[in-house]
Automatic annotation (TrEMBL):
Lineage: Bacteria, Bacillati, Actinomycetota, Actinomycetes, Kitasatosporales
Enzyme nomenclature, EC number: 2.10.1.1
Domain of life: Bacteria
Pathway given in the UniProt record: Cofactor biosynthesis; molybdopterin biosynthesis
UniProt-recorded name of the protein: Molybdopterin molybdenumtransferase
Ranges where the MoaB/Mog domain occurs: 234-370
């Protein structure tokens, strides 16, 4: 037997993820904060790319983010992933791939909005002995001059003219009920269909499934939601110098990215399937990349040109296309984005922790957001409370806290540092040359600053 919540699945059985993405872009709806940033030329043309063994300049920071969005749209077209019917308890943070239409009137019958008495006609009223509770069958009709005790959410008896709140009534020595203030016809009754009628569209395609959306879907009769599937991500942690426990010693350091990346990627809408530690082993990296069927592979470290930096040689060996090879941003300059297959990409993050965060927000965030059909956040700015030194040529991403309609830059913002970002609400985008105190700066929200740990809702 088909559950009520699967009815919308038939409406979208031929809808693929790219069509859902198109609907999101064309009809943003209430859950969207703003349009995606336009790419170079603003026409959505394919991103320029080059073989992994070619030489070129680093990509400007805004262009790198736009390239990642375009790559995700191309991947969605190539993969033709079908939206899924997802149980409500697993749908948090997903994007609706079919409109949410009411499967019933809300409320589905006339209900009492308050604890008190259901009344018929003018008072005083004779009170029935039995009461009316929520969850029970329809009670017997009332006649004029009659009242019955009723609980919030209970079905009102037929011929009820109003509900009198408990605090607005009194009984006399004969047990008759009197109002202590005027009674208005229909007061404190929620009529059937007050919120919606069966078939009304409640939310459009592209809406993000927040806790409130899940509650509305349940109230409207759904057991499942038709949603865009989460992009699948595998993480490869590179580096022989990394420890998974204990204190640093003998030239070894603790791995900060292994614990940090999976929850951060989940907050960006991904399904993180595995975290594999490879070390500095070129053959192991090649095997891991070529055997992976995830939508996105994220690597940590190994993106520069040192003797044990194996990401570029591996990409050349498998014939990958480098869409972004270095970004004009600090920290995080040696990040990269490569197309492995038509529907599979690799984001190479630098090994330094804050540089890796920069790579996450520059390349992984727009790619995952677009694959998951989430709306692009609307860019916003706040004045900086202090001056920020800039790089002569590159954009800087600086951790800030938000205070009194301003952004306060934080110390400990070096490439290898996490102390600043751990206390931050956002990253400020500082243009080349720096920014003076009071200057407006674009801000990149951190997932937990706007939506709670585990899922970014906005």
């Amino acid at each position: 037997m088909t559950s009520p919540g699967t009815r919308s699945d038939a409406q979208a059985e031929d809808l693929d993820v790219e069509e859902a993405l198109a609907l999101v872009r064309e009809n943003p709806g209430p859950a969207h904060r703003g349009p995606a940033r336009p790419g170079p030329g603003g026409n959505g043309s394919p991103a320029p790319h080059h073989p992994a063994n070619s030489r070129h300049r680093a990509t400007p920071w805004p262009e790198a983010r736009t390239t990642a969005e375009r790559a995700a749209r191309a991947a969605a077209r190539a993969a033709r992933r079908t939206p899924l019917a997802v149980p409500l308890d697993a749908a948090l943070g997903l994007t609706l791939a079919a409109p949410l239409a009411a499967l019933t009137d809300l409320p589905s019958f006339d209900t009492s909005a308050m604890d008190g008495w259901a009344l018929a006609g003018p008072g005083p009223w004779t009170v029935r002995n039995e009461g009316v509770l929520a969850g029970h069958a329809e009670p017997a009709p009332l006649v004029d001059g009659e009242a019955v005790r009723i609980a919030t959410g209970a079905r009102v008896p037929p011929d009820t003219t109003a509900v009198l709140r408990s605090e607005h009534g009194r009984t006399d020595e004969r047990g008759r009920l009197h109002p202590t203030r005027d009674v208005v016809h229909g007061q404190d009754i929620r009529p059937r269909g007050q919120e919606c009628r069966s078939g009304d569209q409640l939310l459009p395609v592209g809406t993000l499934a927040t806790p409130a959306v899940l509650g509305l879907a349940a109230a409207a009769g759904y057991d499942t939601l038709t949603a865009v599937p989460r992009p699948r991500v595998d993480v490869l942690v590179l580096g022989d110098e990394l420890l998974t426990g204990g204190l640093p010693h003998d030239g070894l350091i603790r791995d900060a990215l292994g614990p940090m990346l999976p929850p951060w990627l989940r907050a960006l809408g991904a399904e993180v399937r595995s975290v594999t530690r490879i070390g500095d082993d070129a053959e192991a990296l090649h095997r891991a990349v070529t055997s992976c069927d995830a939508d996105l592979i994220v690597t940590t470290g190994g993106t520069a040109a040192g003797p044990v930096d194996h990401v570029h040689p591996t990409l050349r060996r498998i014939g990958a296309e480098l869409l972004v090879d270095g970004v004009e941003v600090r920290p995080g300059h040696p990040m990269l984005l490569a197309r492995l297959k038509d529907d599979q990409y690799l984001v190479g993050l630098p090994g330094n922790p804050l540089a890796a965060v920069s790579g996450l927000l520059t390349l992984a965030e727009p790619l995952l957001r677009t694959l998951a059909a989430r709306p692009a956040p609307e860019p916003y700015t706040l004045p900086l409370r202090d001056a920020v030194h800039g790089h002569p040529h590159d954009t800087r991403l600086v951790p800030v806290v938000l205070r009194d309609e301003g952004a306060v830059p934080l110390r400990y913002n070096g490439p290898a540092m996490l102390r600043g970002i751990a206390a931050a609400d956002a990253l400020a985008v500082v243009p080349p040359g720096g920014a003076r105190s009071g200057q407006e700066a674009e801000l990149l929200d951190l997932p937990w600053a706007t939506g709670g740990i585990g899922v970014c809702f906005t």
